UniProtKB/TrEMBL annotation:
Tree of life domain: Bacteria
Coiled coil: none
Domain Gamma-butyrobetaine hydroxylase-like N-terminal per the UniProt entry, residue ranges: 14-98
Keyword Endoplasmic reticulum on entry: no
A Pfam family that the UniProt record links to this protein: GBBH-like_N
Keywords: Iron, Metal-binding
InterPro entries membership: GBBH-like_N (IPR010376), GBBH-like_N_sf (IPR038492)
Species: Deefgea chitinilytica
Annotated protein name in UniProt: DUF971 domain-containing protein
C-alpha cells in the first residue's frame, strides 16, 4: 500500500500543551512533530470526518479554537484524542500521527484550499 512506512517508528513521548494547543510527538527514529489541535481535529481518522469511503469526506469548519482535553492510550498502537468540542471517535495510530507530522505542510495547505473553495471558515460562527 502506498504511503505506508516499512516499519512504523514508535513514539517515545507524547506531550499535550493545552495552552498553546499543540500535541508534541517524538519518535524513536528521532522525528519530532508539533501538531496543532485544530489540525488534528480536522484530520481525525473518524467516520464523522472521513466519511464512509472516498468522496464522502466531511469538511470540518469552525475548528480554529478547538483544544484537546485528553489523550487516552489505545493498546500499543494508537491514542484516542478527546477534543473540547465533544469529538472523540478517532483513533490516531502511531503511523497516522507520523504521517500527519511528516506531511503537515501539504495536508494543512490542502485543508485551507478546501475551506476557501467551500467559502467556509476556520472560525466558529
Amino acid at each position: 500500500m502506498a504511503g505506508l512506512l516499512p516499519t512504523t517508528p514508535q513514539p517515545t513521548e507524547i506531550k499535550l500543551h493545552q495552552k498553546s494547543k499543540i500535541l508534541e510527538v517524538a519518535y524513536a527514529d528521532g522525528a519530532q512533530f508539533q501538531l496543532p489541535c485544530e489540525f488534528l481535529r480536522v484530520s481525525s481518522p473518524s467516520a464523522e470526518v472521513r466519511g464512509h469511503g472516498v468522496g464522502n469526506e466531511v469538511l470540518q469548519v469552525g475548528k480554529a479554537n478547538v483544544n484537546i482535553i485528553a489523550v487516552e492510550p489505545v493498546g500499543n498502537y494508537a491514542v484516542k484524542l478527546v477534543f473540547d468540542d465533544g469529538h472523540d471517535s478517532g483513533l490516531f495510530s502511531w503511523e497516522y500521527l507520523y504521517e500527519l507530522g511528516r506531511d503537515y505542510d501539504v495536508l494543512w495547505a490542502n485543508y485551507l484550499a478546501q475551506l476557501a473553495a467551500a467559502g467556509a471558515s476556520r472560525e466558529a460562527k
